[in-house]
Design brief:
- It is a single chain.
- By secondary structure, this protein is of the alpha/beta class.
- Helices cover 49% and strands 7% of the residues.
- The protein has one domain: 3-Layer(aba) Sandwich (Rossmann fold).
- It has helices at 2-18, 25-46, 59-73, 105-109, 130-143, 147-152, 164-169, 175-188, 200-205, 207-218, 224-233, 236-245, 282-295, 309-315; strands at 49-53, 97-100, 122-127, 194-199.
- It has a four-stranded parallel beta sheet with strand order 2-1-3-4, with helices on both faces.
Length: 321
C-alpha cells in the first residue's frame, strides 16, 4: 500500500510540474524541487536510518548488498530490493532506510547552510574519493541523465560540449559541488544523534568487514556466511549481469543500461579505485589533486594530511550518548 502511495505521489508531482506547459521552466523547476524536498522530509522523519551519499559514490552497490543480505536473513524473494520501508512491511525487524543525496530537502526547508533536519536522525554516510566521483558523474551526465534531471540539478546541457576535464572542474557539476557536500557533512557530524561513515574504498578493500559494520549500525547483524553471500552477489561481474538482464527493471532505471553495448552508459561501469587518473594528462592530474588537497576536509583520508584509511570510519562513527 505504501509503495502504491509513493507511485501516486510521484505521478501527481509529474502532472503538477509538467502539465502546465505555459508555465516558465524556471517556475516548474522551483516547484519540482520544492515538492521533492517535501517528500524527502516526510521520509526522513519516518525512517529508522538515513543513508546519505553524493551521486555515483557506490550507493546502488551497497543497496544490492543490503538487499541480498535481507533476502537471505529474512527469507525474502530474490527480487526484493531495499526501498525505504518496503522490506520492513514484510518483516518488522528490517529497518526502513531513507536513501538520499540531500539535494532537494533544502528547497523545501529553506535551510541551505546546515543539516539541521538530520540532527535527530541516525545517519549512515557513504563517501568516495571526489575525484573518482566527478569522473563517474561525467559519464552519468553524458549517457544516462535525462534532460529535465540535468536542468533540475543545475548540470550543464550536453550541447555545451564540455570535455571530461572541463566537466570535472566545473563549478556546478564537478569537484566544487562534491567537495562542498563532503565538507558540510564533516562539519555537521558532531551535531548528529548517531552517525557512521563508510568509505567506498574501504568497502572495496574489505567488503565483508565494512558491510558487517553497516549492518551493526542498522541494528541487524548477520552471520559471516550471510555477509559473504551478500558480498558475492553484489560483486562487479554479477552486478553487470543483473544490469544486462534487467533483473531489477521493476525498480526503475537504477540497474538498467543507458545504451546496450556501450559500457560507459552502464550503471556498473568500472568500479575502480583511483581510476580517475586514467583520463587525464600529468598537468590535469596535478590541478585536480591540488584542488582536493587545498579544499577537502582531511578527515575523510583523501588528502595527505588525513588519518589512515583504517581509522577513518572510527573518526566519523558517532553513537548517541
Amino acid at each position: 500500500m505504501s509503495e502504491l502511495r509513493d507511485r501516486i505521489r510521484d505521478a501527481a508531482r509529474e502532472v503538477v510540474v509538467h502539465a502546465p506547459f505555459f508555465v516558465p521552466a524556471t517556475q516548474r523547476r522551483r516547484l519540482d524541487r520544492w515538492l521533492r524536498g517535501r517528500e524527502e522530509l516526510r521520509k526522513l522523519h519516518a525512517a529508522d536510518v538515513a543513508f546519505v551519499s553524493w551521486a555515483k559514490s557506490g550507493r546502488t552497490w551497497v543497496r544490492l548488498m543490503l538487499s541480498r543480505f535481507y533476502q537471505i536473513h529474512c527469507r525474502l524473494p530474490e527480487s526484493s530490493f531495499l526501498e525505504f520501508d518496503n522490506l520492513k512491511r514484510r518483516d518488522p525487524a528490517i529497518p526502513s532506510v531513507f536513501f538520499t543525496h540531500g539535494n532537494y530537502l533544502r528547497d523545501y526547508s529553506g535551510d541551505f547552510t546546515s543539516k539541521q533536519a538530520f540532527y535527530d536522525a541516525r545517519v549512515l554516510l557513504l563517501a568516495r574519493d571526489p575525484r573518482d566521483v566527478a569522473v563517474s558523474q561525467y559519464f552519468q551526465w553524458k549517457h544516462r541523465m535525462r534532460g529535465w534531471k540535468r536542468y533540475l540539478n543545475d548540470y550543464p546541457e550536453q550541447r555545451d560540449g564540455l570535455s571530461l576535464y572541463e566537466f570535472v572542474m566545473e563549478q556546478e557539476a564537478g569537484l566544487p559541488r562534491i567537495v562542498e557536500f563532503l565538507n558540510v557533512w564533516a562539519r555537521e557530524r558532531p551535531k548528529l544523534r548517531a552517525a557512521h561513515l563508510t568509505r567506498y574504498e574501504d568497502l572495496r578493500r574489505r567488503p565483508a568487514e565494512s558491510l558487517a559494520a553497516m549492518l551493526a549500525f542498522l541494528g541487524t547483524p548477520g552471520s559471516d556466511a550471510e555477509i559473504e553471500e551478500a558480498v558475492r552477489y553484489a560483486a562487479f561481474d554479477n552486478m553487470r549481469r543483473l544490469e544486462e538482464t534487467q533483473a531489477y527493471r521493476r525498480q526503475g532505471r537504477r540497474l538498467v543500461a543507458g545504451e546496450r553495448g556501450n559500457p560507459d552508459s552502464y550503471k556498473v561501469r568500472r568500479a575502480k579505485v583511483g581510476g580517475w587518473r586514467d583520463y587525464f594528462d600529468d598537468a590535469q592530474c596535478a590541478a585536480i589533486d591540488g584542488y582536493v588537497r587545498e579544499r577537502l576536509d582531511p578527515v575523510y583520508g583523501y588528502v595527505d594530511a588525513g588519518p589512515p584509511a583504517r581509522e577513518t570510519a572510527a573518526v566519523l562513527h558517532r553513537e548517541p550518548a
